Each structure stands twice: as C-alpha cells, then as structure tokens.
Fold:
Amino acid sequence: MLFNSLEFMVFFPVVCLTYYVIPYRFRYLFLLACSYFFYMCWNPRYALLMLTSTVITYLSGLLLENAEKTKEESVRIRKKKLFVAFSFVINLSILFFFKYYGFAADTIVKVLEAVGFHVSIPVFDVVLPVGISFYTFQALSYTVDVYRREIYAEKNFLKYALFVSFFPQLVAGPIERSKNLLIQINEKHKFEYDRVRDGLLLMLYGYFQKVVLAEYLAVAVNSVFDSCLERTGFQLMVASVLFAFQIYCDFASYSNIAIGAAKVMGFRLMENFNTPYFAQSVAEFWRRWHISLTTWFRDYLYIPLGGSRKGKWKKYRNIMIVFLISGLWHGASWHFVFWGCLNGMYQVIGECIKPVKECIVKQFKIRTEVFSHKLMKCMETFVLVDVSWIFFRNNFRQSFVILERIFGLSGEKWFTWGNNLEAMGLTVNTRNVLLISLLILFCVDLCKYKGIRLIEWIAGQEIWFRWLIYFAGIFGVLIFGVYGPGFDASQFIYFQF
Structure:
C-alpha cells in the first residue's frame, strides 16, 4: 500500500478515527494489526520474515537483561556478547539471503571463472521484501541499546512488535530508535487540534514533493538516462542535476508523510532530512541527508570501530568502512558500493587537505563568513554529491558514458540548438509547473535553513489567510499532481532498499 495510492487515502483516515475512539488499553493492539495489514498488502508471506526478526530481537533483549543478573563479570560479558551475536547473525543472515545472495553468488562465479575455474552455484528466484533493510536495522538497534543498558528490555511482546512494524515509518524510515519510539507506545495520546493540523500540513507538503515534484522530475530524468547513448552532454548534465532533486524530493516526501502521519496519531518520529543541499561540505551533507541512517551507522558502527579516537589513519579507515557498508546497504550491486566508496573518499580527501585550505584562507585573508564564499562552498559540495548520484542511479557503463559526455570527452556534440527540454519529455506546461515547484522547494528549505518554522508561522496568521494556504496546497497537489485513473502510483525510490 503506497502513501500515494487511493487505498492509503481510505486506510489512513479510518485508522486515525478508530484510533482516537477506542480505549487507550487497546490502541497498541489496533495499531499493530493495522501495521501488519499495511505491510501484508505487498506480500502477506513476507510478514513472517518481519515477525521472525521481531521474535529474535525480542528474545535477545530478554536474554541480555537476564544476563545482567550473573554475578561473575567475565561470564556476564561472555553471555551478553553471545546473545548479541545470536541476534545479529540470524537477522543479517535473513537480510543476506533475500538481498545479497544472488549478488554474492554471481560475484563468486565471475571471480572463479576469471582464474579458470567453472562452477555452478544455485540461484533462488526470490522477491526482495519491501523495507527489509529498514526494519532489520531498527530491530538490531534495540538489541544493542539493551546490551549497552541504555533501555530496559520490553516485556510486552506485542508492544515491541508494534515498535518494529509501526506502519508510517515501516517501509522506508526514518529508522527509529527504541529510546524514542518504544517508550511512546505506552503514552496516552489525546486528540490535539494543533498537533493534528501540523501533522496533516507536513503530510500535504510530502505529497507535494512526491506527486508533483518527484514525478515530474522523473519524466525528464528517466527519459534522458534511459537513452544516454543518444543524448548530448548538455541534456545529461541537466538530467543529472534534476536527479539530485528527484531523489531528494522522493525520499524526503516519504519521510515527511511518515512523520506527519505519526504526528496525527500523537507519535514523534525523528527528523530525516535537514536542507542537505545547503551543506558546505560533503561531511555536512551527510549530517543533513537520511539522518536516521547516518546516525545509525555513527552510533552502531563508526563509534564501536573506534571513531576518531584512535588516530588519524584509523579514523579514515573507519569512514571508508562505514561508507562502503552504506553503499552495500542501498543495493546489491557494485555501482552502489562504488557510490559509497566515492562519498567516503570525498570525506577522507577533505580531511587530508583541510590544513592546506586553512593555510590558503589565512594567507589570502579569505573571508569565510561572507555569502559569496558560502555560496561557492555549497556549489562545490553539490557538484561532488551530484557526480556520485550518477553512479547511484546508473550502472557502471552508463555512468562513465554520462560523465564522458558531460565533460566533453566523448567527441560528440555537447550542445545542439533546438528545444532540449521538450526532447527530455518536458512540455511547456510541465516545465512551468516544475520551475514554480522547484522555487517553492527552495523557499521552504531556505526558511528551514534560516530557522524559520513555516508551520508555526502559518498557524499564527489570521484564519482567512491560514485556510487560503491550506486550500492552495490541497488544490495545487490535486490539479498539478501526477495521479488518477490510468496512472499506476509509482513506488518511492527507497522502497528497493
């Protein structure tokens, strides 16, 4: 069941109305049933995988808490490590089989054939369960939090099952922490007009990002990248820039709808995007992009590896490990691994040349606080990130063809006169809607970057002005959004991860 489907437009209001009507003690049971129904709309059988992950991590939490009663420290530590390993091995094995087995088998066969050995490894035709990477990481973070004694193990299995399967953020995040979401399940959420209004406004903005911006951008991006051998360098460059905004709008829209939907029901989910394209370095970009995953890797991988505490070279090693695994998390393909490697290299190189840049700033008395310098840094960061997005979106062969043509190294014409935008699938009307929508996106992100809370600002206006904005947003999405009879609601990009 997609957020941008008619089914969800019926499902969500019914869930919310029922949730606020039934007694408090039954609400978590109702949400659990709704969450499993929501997930089973894709493939009912794969709900068993989520249930298996839930049972394993639930039991590991109880075992870890019970191990704390062991008096002898060495035995206690050994038991706890064993239970954590038990949880990780089983959960990651399930994830590996469904997401990475085919990739690993194909890689092994090709490597052995390259050295003269011909082998046959059985291949299983399985469909990747939607959201498996997200709920697996969320469940594993609970195991680690109990191991670190940051939370107590949840005794009520059904409440814990709701934490793993909570439908707004189940399929594509944010990847929640037990310290935030699990404790909210025990709270009594009353209907509050202001909170519900704020949640609905956030959902409305998410729908604008998805059905207007992301869908129109997808038309141009897919048209160009799917026929990259026939495109000029100029068209490929424009498509690359547009894809940066497409993937941002597509993923941020899911997060905004998820956070808004949870807020309507009284739950607070963590922020997942914070104006990433205003970042002035690649490191800052990753502090603003997919925050729930970035902080997950920081808390559960980077810091345990030693972080930046064990010297400069081990810090660089840890950065590369995190980004290589992050690339693999995004997809079972070498171009995803390379994308992760490229972003890790950006940060390592940035760290290495930092003293040189500081020396240049000092010698030439460059004013780093002025707008022009910050703008230059933003543009530099965007170009680096955008180059990496090319490898994220396309396979190796396509990516190198695209870069070759963008930088004019192919010998082909870089630019041809004519209506390039129409050749990219953008009509005059589509182009105008897209330009206005991108301007709205920029203004909203700029306000957020400057600390202006737009929802609070709107709430503080006169009633006629508030409702003018509400109706403008609703009818703008209805009139210009891509949906309706004959339209197959497209999946969010991050569903494949």
